[in-house]
Amino acid sequence: MEDGEDPGNAFAIPDLWASSRYFPEPEDSYGFLFSQLKFDDISEKLPEQTLSHGGNGGFFALPDFPFENPEASIISTSTPPPLSERGEEINNDEGDGYVDIWSFAPEEELKSANYLTWDAFDEQREEAPQTCYVSEGGPQLFDAAVADDTNPLQIDNQDAVVVSGSTYASSLLALGLGRDSVLFTWNEETKDFECTLKSVRTSGCTTELTHDITALFLHCGNTTKALRSFTNKTYHKHRSPGRIALADAISTVLSTLQSHLNIPASSLQSILKLQSLFQPVSHLLTIFHELILFAGSAENDEVMLSNLFQYIEQTEHRTDSTQTILLEVLSRVSRPFLDFAGEWLGIQRETGMPLVKGSVGKSFVKAEDRLWIDEHGMEIRTPDFVLDEARVPSFMPEEDMQILFEAGQSLRLLREHQPEHPLARGDIVTAAAAKPVLEWEFSWQNIEAIGERARQYEKDLTAAIEKYSTSGHTPPALRLAPPAEKKEELNLFGKPPSEMEAHLLASITTLTTAPLTPSSTLTTLLTNHLTASPTPSTSHLTHNPTSLPLPLPLTPHLSLTPLLTPLSTHLSHATLTLLLASNLSTHLSLHRSFSLLGSGVFASRLAHALFDPDLGTAERQRGVVREGVMGLRLGGRGRQKGSGGLGGEGSWPPGGSELRLVLSGVLSESYAATTPRAPSRPSTSSSSSPPAFEIGGRVRAYTAPTLLPGDLSFGVRHMTPPEISACLDPSSLSALDFLRLVYHPPAPLDAVITPESLHMYDRAFCALLRCLRVQFVMGELFRASKTWDSSRRGRGGVGRGEGRTAARFRNEAQHFVNAICSHFESGVTAAWGVMEGKMREVEDRLQPGGVGLAAGEGVEGLRRYHERVLERMMGVLLLRGRQSVVRGVLEEVLGCVLGFGGWAASASAASRTTENGEGDGEKGVEELYKTFKSKVKVFITICRGMEEKKGGVLGAEGGGRGKGGGYGGRGGLFDLEEVGRGDVVGGLLGRLEGSGYYC
């Protein structure tokens, strides 16, 4: 600071405007930028100048502008950098630097006055600020950068065809819906959509990004095409209801998705937005495509339904709404199966051809001939309904399926023999207040609703059955009157024009406005899934436990049991009552008395008619009149060869007339002696036709005093040539194998007394008849033994040594035969006692106020129980398949006994000579006795091995026919386990070895 200067002006800014050198001419000043000035030049010049505070305004005085050229005074409005950053010196043409103070000037001055209006204010637009990024410069800038030959973005997309966003989006939409478009077409050879251009991209996107987005739509298009192809093939080539139901569900899914993606063409601007719309659609299409691959290749509806159920069970962990959609598809596809199950149970009217025996089956029911094969390989066919296990869905519990099938069988048995019963009348069943319907439910709340409807249905059904039991007739079904139709009367005469016009307009509106078709549940679920938020809501599961999803494996059982159980119980009660009313107990007792030789009167009469040597012969002899009581005298006396035998040459087997004379009246008289009074319903056969006697496969009639239940009579069984040859020898054990009992079970008793059970009765009769013959022979041996101790020869006696051998043989044979016959009799009696006890229990349960029945305890359960009792008898009688070895040894032992009886009869009837009588007779009985002893030892050894196995022979076969229970399981009224196997050989060994003789 110089002396004399005002200290207050020490920091005064120099008057830059005083010197003209700092204010160049306009044409020189506006050619430079203020940012190019050097701070050093400014710092050197500022101290030398002073600002004059006087004059025109001092520091704030405006400089004198040369306004000759106003445009030259316009300076850039950009804000200059601070002085510290201005370090560059700018020289003009003359080399002089300057400070551009106009860089601090305000906005650019208006060139002219503006006329301001409100319209101009509303129409003004704000220009978007410019950006320095290429990606934000718009698709045009990106396309220009990509198309540049220099490739500044390092993206090799110069050869790609650029398509506008709207055009490409329209093609993608058509592709996702499985349709052809300008850019994508369907290739029939590869079964895929292909792009018509080799390399394509949309404006603003690279080829790679375009291809990645297109992959989603290609997947949707190919999947849609595959689903549509599946539905078209199903509709044209298949007729199965289940497959058509699946195709209908797939078609509903496709139509719903297309309706959801019905987007206007004007809104297709962004392919990214379109991609977000197709992502949930792609997820659904993938699921249904996997579903048809998993279930569509099945051979029948039931296998397809099983595969579908298994696929949905595997995806049970899903928490989104797709699981609900799949369950609805399962419900729709299983509808044909449930409808047929309802028709089989009688709760729905049958559609199409009704099921009858011998016709074509349907679903899990086969209407075919049930095949029975006897021990000789003969086939017996009876028309019946058979459960086709190959057509049963895998998710159906075995017990429930057995109950369902047996309930349908009981219903048809009831319709055939008691058509007036309320259960047999479909109009009564379907007209109940709570109409029963078989359907799947997948929540606990709906399962409880099914239980409520089933309980109400059971009450209605019970009331109808009680009314039928008391009155004896079924009340007619209530038919609701159809609702009255609303009729519009056209009466315009005499009305004002305005009212007539209004009436006509209302009529036109009614005719032209079609009622809206309600959308299906599947459509609603699909729409909600596509429009709902992706985050699932689980709050309702927490507050309402009854809406929790039901475990899928439990769905069939819990959905069907509430209705199936009461219906099966009522049907079982009705059919068993029908069987008892048809004298089932009488017919079973008939088989016990005759087929199993339980009647002592019949056994005694039959033995005397066949074996008593004191009866007159029934054989036809020339010149001799047959009179008195006649018999076959088998083994008692030597029979002469002659004509008339079934064998052809000899007199044995006897002829048909001889059999009729001998056996006439044996059955009827024995039945009359054991039965105080004739049964109320002995037979369903015509009363005019007499009982039949079957010979050689033909039926010959003869007159009998009394008609027996089931037309019981004697007959001749069908035999093979080797068996006929065995019958030709009257001294053999097989001499009476041609004789059998003929029985025809009347309906409806044939549901329990089946051909298989009749075959077992026939085998038991044959075995017991052999034992009866051996017992008779042993009785005759004691009559002939009085001559064995005679020491005289030639007078009908035998030698002393021969007599001792014969006496020992007689005692041992008597012991063996008594043990065998006692074992057989006790085994048959014990098994039949189980059957009689079960029949009494059934009768007690069916009485009013009784315990009642459970589901599955019906006719089929009783049939299996009856057959299981007979199988136990087959084991006791050593007639099972794996007992053929021990049975063969037993037949050899009994054959030795019969041979010994024949020797004794011959010794008692004729005298022996001195030359050859003693030697030949002693040698014959000695060899026969040795054979007998060896065979008995073999038989006992085999029986010991069987006893050590503890039922290994019988148990291997006995448990294969049923597991027990009314429906094949354990427990219940008809529990097969309580029948047991019986004492196969344990009691027999105790009887044979009780004295320790064979030890």
TrEMBL record:
<feature type="region of interest" description="Disordered">
    <location>
        <begin position="673"/>
        <end position="692"/>
    </location>
</feature>
<dbReference type="GO" id="GO:0007020">
    <property type="term" value="P:microtubule nucleation"/>
</dbReference>
<dbReference type="InterPro" id="IPR042241">
    <property type="entry name" value="GCP_C_sf"/>
</dbReference>
<dbReference type="InterPro" id="IPR041470">
    <property type="entry name" value="GCP_N"/>
</dbReference>
<dbReference type="GO" id="GO:0005874">
    <property type="term" value="C:microtubule"/>
</dbReference>
<dbReference type="GO" id="GO:0005816">
    <property type="term" value="C:spindle pole body"/>
</dbReference>
<keyword id="KW-0493">Microtubule</keyword>
<comment type="similarity">
    <text>Belongs to the TUBGCP family.</text>
</comment>
<feature type="domain" description="Gamma tubulin complex component C-terminal">
    <location>
        <begin position="584"/>
        <end position="998"/>
    </location>
</feature>
<dbReference type="InterPro" id="IPR040457">
    <property type="entry name" value="GCP_C"/>
</dbReference>
<dbReference type="GO" id="GO:0051225">
    <property type="term" value="P:spindle assembly"/>
</dbReference>
<dbReference type="Pfam" id="PF17681">
    <property type="entry name" value="GCP_N_terminal"/>
</dbReference>
<feature type="domain" description="Gamma tubulin complex component protein N-terminal">
    <location>
        <begin position="172"/>
        <end position="423"/>
    </location>
</feature>
<dbReference type="GO" id="GO:0000278">
    <property type="term" value="P:mitotic cell cycle"/>
</dbReference>
<dbReference type="GO" id="GO:0051011">
    <property type="term" value="F:microtubule minus-end binding"/>
</dbReference>
<feature type="region of interest" description="Disordered">
    <location>
        <begin position="635"/>
        <end position="655"/>
    </location>
</feature>
<dbReference type="GO" id="GO:0051321">
    <property type="term" value="P:meiotic cell cycle"/>
</dbReference>
<feature type="compositionally biased region" description="Gly residues">
    <location>
        <begin position="635"/>
        <end position="650"/>
    </location>
</feature>
<keyword id="KW-0206">Cytoskeleton</keyword>
<dbReference type="Pfam" id="PF04130">
    <property type="entry name" value="GCP_C_terminal"/>
</dbReference>
<dbReference type="GO" id="GO:0043015">
    <property type="term" value="F:gamma-tubulin binding"/>
</dbReference>
<dbReference type="GO" id="GO:0000930">
    <property type="term" value="C:gamma-tubulin complex"/>
</dbReference>
<dbReference type="GO" id="GO:0031122">
    <property type="term" value="P:cytoplasmic microtubule organization"/>
</dbReference>
<protein>
    <recommendedName>
        <fullName>Spindle pole body component</fullName>
    </recommendedName>
</protein>
<dbReference type="GO" id="GO:0000922">
    <property type="term" value="C:spindle pole"/>
</dbReference>
<keyword id="KW-0963">Cytoplasm</keyword>
<dbReference type="InterPro" id="IPR007259">
    <property type="entry name" value="GCP"/>
</dbReference>
